[in-house]
Write a structure and sequence with these properties.
Length: about 350
């Protein structure tokens, strides 16, 4: 005979309503009570019927992730698996599943979000990238649909809950690291200008140059895709200049790997000939040869905090929007030297 909630309640010596609240992961239930109930569920072989619960509560027990571009390119960059690991860890704690949507174009991604919201397929969304003039934010605000943004929104900050680093400050510190080593010819290699993170990090770079009395050169600011190929293209563009830079601030480790490999191919040595500071501090940064000086932005925590904010919003719909700033740290390794 299939065990019921009443059977679990009897074995755990609690009320059936308490068992229901434990299954729903109610934060008001004590840890000890949760342990006793889960032990009883395990002993009886009881498995909650989440589908039935969803029909009654009108909750899906699922959150959605809006990926920034086609899935194959997204997962070439270790940032996304790591941020999703942070999200999924918190989701697991809440007994929530994850639904991902992406597309080969902005229109496809937007259509996917329309379908999710109108079909109420998830209880809330986490957007994994912040874009300039993003119509998705306005749409979600208009529909009053719970969502959290990873990255700073392009305007309307007071109405949007978002989790981000202080990217202006981080890029300022990364650039100053090269300046303190004696570099004056410093280039910036960023992603597309449609990304708010690129704009913020470029502004930090420009601010550092200004404070150091170094004239900004427009030809030292280049933009390519956050992939190894983007780094390769940046090297060819910068090294062909009459006066190439001696230091690079690169806004993504994967681009930096492409830069390092391409520099080797053209006979340039990282640290001796050209210094590189990067961002994200993915695991391969330490394993690279030479190991990369990189800004650790706590990727896992970005995802974990974004999920926590979304669950808070789902459980308390009237909660005011919040801004969560995740600390960063410049990790100095072997990719920088004096010019």
């Amino acid at each position: 005979m299939t065990p019921t909630i009443k059977d679990v309640a009897k074995l755990a010596n609690v009320s059936p309503s308490t068992v229901s609240r434990v299954i729903a992961n109610n934060p008001k239930i004590s840890l000890r009570t949760k342990e006793v109930v889960h032990e009883a569920m395990s002993e009886l072989g009881y498995h909650p019927n989440y589908t039935a619960r969803s029909l009654v509560s009108r909750n899906t027990q699922t959150i959605g992730l809006v990926m920034p571009s086609s899935g194959d390119k997204v997962f070439q960059n270790p940032f996304f698996p790591e941020v999703i690991r942070g999200i999924s860890t918190k989701s697991h704690d809440k007994n929530y599943g994850i639904y991902m949507t992406t597309g080969n174009s902005e229109d496809e991604i937007m259509q996917g979000v329309y379908d999710i919201v109108q079909g109420r397929r998830v209880d809330g969304l986490i957007l994994l990238a912040s874009k300039v003039n993003d119509p998705m934010l306005g749409y979600l605000l208009e529909k009053d649909f719970p969502f959290t943004l990873i990255g700073k929104p392009d305007g309307d900050e007071s109405n949007i809950t978002f989790v981000d680093n202080d990217n202006v400050k981080a890029a300022y510190e990364a650039t100053m690291h090269l300046i303190h080593l004696g570099h004056k010819r410093i280039a910036f290699v960023g992603g597309g200008m449609e990304l708010v993170v690129t704009v913020d990090r470029m502004n930090g770079y420009i601010e550092a140059l200004k404070d150091a009395g170094i004239k900004r050169k427009d030809e030292y600011i280049v933009h390519h895709e956050f992939l190894r190929e983007g780094g390769r293209d940046a090297v060819h563009e910068l090294m062909s200049l009459d006066e190439p830079p001696t230091g690079l601030v690169v806004t993504d480790d994967i681009m930096a790997f492409g830069i390092v490999n391409t520099l080797e191919q053209i006979g340039k040595k990282v640290k001796e000939d050209i210094s590189v500071v990067s961002f994200n501090n993915v695991i391969f940064s330490e394993l690279a040869n030479p190991s990369l000086t990189s800004v650790d932005i706590n990727i896992f925590k970005l995802g974990h905090e974004a999920a926590q904010c979304l669950f808070d919003h789902i459980e308390q719909p009237n909660l005011l929007p919040r801004r969560i700033t995740i600390p960063h740290q410049l990790v100095v390794r072997n990719s920088c030297g004096t010019p």
